[in-house]
Amino acid sequence: CSKMGKRSRQRQKNQSTGRDSRDNGWGNGYADIVKENKLFESYYKELGLVPEGEFEQFMDAMREPLPATIRITGYKSHAKEILHCLKEKYFKDIQELEIDGQKIEAPQALSWYPDEQAWHTNMSRKIIRKSPLLEKFHQFLVSETESGNISRQEAVSMLPPLLLKIEPHHKILDMCAAPGSKTAQLIEMLHADMDVPFPEGFVIANDVDNKRCYLLVHQAKRLNSPCIMVVNHDASCIPTLHINSGGKRDVLFYDRILCDVPCSGDGTLRKNIDVWKKWTTSNSLHLHGLQLRIAVRGVEQLAVGGRMVYSTCSLNPIEDEAVIAALLEKSEGALELADSSADLPGLKWMPGVSSWKLMTKEGMWYSDWSEVPSSRQTQIRPTMFPPTDSEKLASMHLERCMRILPHHQNTGGFFVAVLVKKAPMPWNKRFPKIVTLTRRGKLIVCSPHPLFSRPPPLKKMKLFGYKEDPFVFLTEDDPVFTTIQSFYDLSPDFPKLNVLTRTHEGKKRHLYMVSKELRNMLLNNSERMKVINTGVKVWSRNSDGEEFGCAFRLAQEGIYTLQPYIRSRIITVSVEDIKVLLTQENPFLSKLQDHAHAQAKKLGMGSIVLKYIPNPSNPAEPQCSIQLCGWRGKTSIRAFVPRNERFHYLRMLGVEVFKDKQGQKPSDGEKEGKEGEEAEVQKVTEEESVAENEGELDLGNGEENRSSEPKADSGSQGTSG
C-alpha cells in the first residue's frame, strides 16, 4: 500500500508540472474543483494573447473537459488496416446511436493530422457504460492501446513531431522524452518504409528522471524498433556523443531535435485541473532559465542544416517567445525561425508575439529589465524581456512561432516554434578552447559562451548504463550463431555484429538487435551515456529447442526486423489459417488449409515463422503483411503471440473479439463472423498468459525473465492425433 501511495503522490507531482499531462487517458473523469484563478485571468487579459472579443470563449473552453484523442500508431500499412477497422466497424454504428434520447456525437478526425490517423471524441465514461456498443468500442481502444496500435495522446502533443519533418535517415534526439507518446511518433516516421528493417536513422530518447525513463521504455517497446535508445541525463547538460566515421572518431550532431521542455503547464488546465489552484506567475519565472539552458544545449548538438522544434504546454511568453528570442539574439544569425504556416493545413493557431511584459505573483508589472529593482534581479533575468533593439526584434520574425488556443479547435493550449541552424553557434567558434600549460604539457579545456555557463562535468559512469545489466555485443564467431545460422538458414547479409545480450556470464537467455548506427553509438560512448534500454528482442532461449536443432526460438517482438534474413522454417498462411492459429490453442496440422499443411509437414519440430502475404486482388482481406512466431510440434502447430496482439490480428481479419466487463470470458460477439460463420476465440490459458507476459512481453530492461519457456507441443503433446 505504501508503494502505491508513493506512486500516486509522484503521479500528482508529475501532473502538476504540466510536463506529461498532454498524454491523456481515455474517458477521464473530472473532480469537483473550482475552476477559477483571478491572477491567471488578469494576467492573460493584460497580455492580450487572445484575440479581442474572444476572452470569455477562451475562459469557457478552459473550464470544459478536454476531448479524448487517439492516434493510430504503428507503421503505414498496419495503420491503414486499423483505420479501416475503426471506420467500418465502430464509427458507422456510433453515428446512429442514441442514449437517453440524446444522439451520440461520433468521433471526428483531426483535420490537420495527415491521413486521418488522429481522432477526438467527447464521450465520457458515464456514457460508455450505458451502451454495449460503446463498451465494445472502449474495449477495442484499450486492447489496441496495450498492443501499441493506438496511442492515447492529446491533440496538441502530436504537433512537434509533425513539424520536425522526419526522414528515415535522420539522427534524432528527443531531449525531454517521457512519457513517450511523441517519441513513438518519431519512431513511426523513421520506419515509413516497412520493407526496410534497419533505417539509417535512430532516436535517442532522453529523460532526467530515472523512473520516468521506464515509462518511456514501455511506450517505445510497443513499436518493436531496433533504432531507439533510451538514456537518462539532465537535458541541460546532456553529453556530447562520438561515433566512428570511416575509421575516425567524430562528434555526433543530430539532424532533428525535439525540445519539449518542462513547463508550468497552464495550457493543460482543461485536463490537469490541479493547475487552477496552483497557478502563479512565479512558475514561469522559475522555469525560464532551465528552459533556456535546455534549448541552448539542443542547438549546440544540432547539425548545420538541421531543425529543432521547441515546444511547451504553457501559453506564457516568458516560457515561449522569451526563450526563442534569447536563443536567436545570442546565435548571431546561426539560427532562424522557420515559417511553418503551410505545414499543417487545417490547424488554427495564433502568430507569436514580439511584445510582452512580466508580472510577479504580488501583481507587480515590469516591461523592461531597467525597471526591475536589484532585490528582484536574481529571480527576474534580462532574457525574460523582449529585445529592446526594434530592428533586431523585427529580424527575428517571432510571428513565426505558433500558439494554439483551446477555444479555436477544442484542444489544450500549446506553443511551438521551429528553428533551423544555418551555421555553428558563435560561442563554439569564438571560444572553442582555452589552452593552459601544465608540467605535463598542454591541457585543453572547452569554454562555452559566458552567458550559458555549464554545470560541472559529469562523474565517470558505469559501463553502459546506470543500475542496468550490461549491453554485450556478440562476435561473428560466437558459438550461439552455429545452430541459429543453420536452423533458420540466415542470409549471408545478416548483421551478426548487431546482436547483443544483457549478460557477460552464464547462458544467454535473450538475444536483441540494434541498428548498426546504435551499435556504433554504444561502442564509442561507454563512459558518457547512462543507457536504460535499447534493442528489440529477436530470440529467446527455449530449453526444449535444443533437441530439435536450435536452443533459441523466435520472439514476436523482433519478427518484422528478423524475418527478411530468415530463409527457412517459413510457412505461408491464409486468412483462414491465421484465424485457426489465433483462436485455437494447439490445433492439429490438419486444421490448416492444404497449402500451409503441405509446408508444415515438410518441417521438423521447432520454432517457425507464419507469414501472410496480402492479395491486392482481394481487398476484403487485410492489405498488409502479417508475420507471427509459431511452434511446429509433433502433430500440431501453435502461434506464440501475446494476447492483445492476437485480438488485434483477429479484428483485422474480421473476427469480433469482445469480452464481458469482468474480462473473464468471450461474449457472443466473438461468434460474429461473415455470414454467420463461427469464430470462437478460446480463452487464453493461464500457462499461455504467463508465457506472454513474462516471455514475449519482456521489456528487455535488464530484468531477465525467470519463468519457464512455453512448451508448445514440444514432443510430449499431440500424440493422440
UniProtKB/TrEMBL annotation:
Positions with biased composition (Basic and acidic residues): 661-686, 703-712
GO terms under biological process: tRNA methylation
Region (Disordered): 1-27, 661-721
Class of this enzyme: transferase
Active site: 313
Reactions accelerated catalytically: cytidine(49) in tRNA + S-adenosyl-L-methionine = 5-methylcytidine(49) in tRNA + S-adenosyl-L-homocysteine + H(+); cytidine(48) in tRNA + S-adenosyl-L-methionine = 5-methylcytidine(48) in tRNA + S-adenosyl-L-homocysteine + H(+); cytidine(50) in tRNA + S-adenosyl-L-methionine = 5-methylcytidine(50) in tRNA + S-adenosyl-L-homocysteine + H(+); a cytidine in mRNA + S-adenosyl-L-methionine = a 5-methylcytidine in mRNA + S-adenosyl-L-homocysteine + H(+)
GO cellular component entries: cytoplasm; extracellular region; nucleus
Transmembrane spans: none
Domain of life: Eukaryota
Gene3D superfamilies according to UniProt: Vaccinia Virus protein VP39 (3.40.50.150)
GO molecular-function terms, A-Z: tRNA (cytidine-5-)-methyltransferase activity; tRNA binding
List of residues binding S-adenosyl-L-methionine: 176-182, 207, 234, 260
Family to which the UniProt record says this protein belongs: Belongs to the class I-like SAM-binding methyltransferase superfamily. RsmB/NOP family.
Protein's name in the database: tRNA (cytosine(34)-C(5))-methyltransferase
UniProt source species: Scophthalmus maximus (Turbot)
Lineage of producing organism: Eukaryota, Metazoa, Chordata, Craniata, Vertebrata
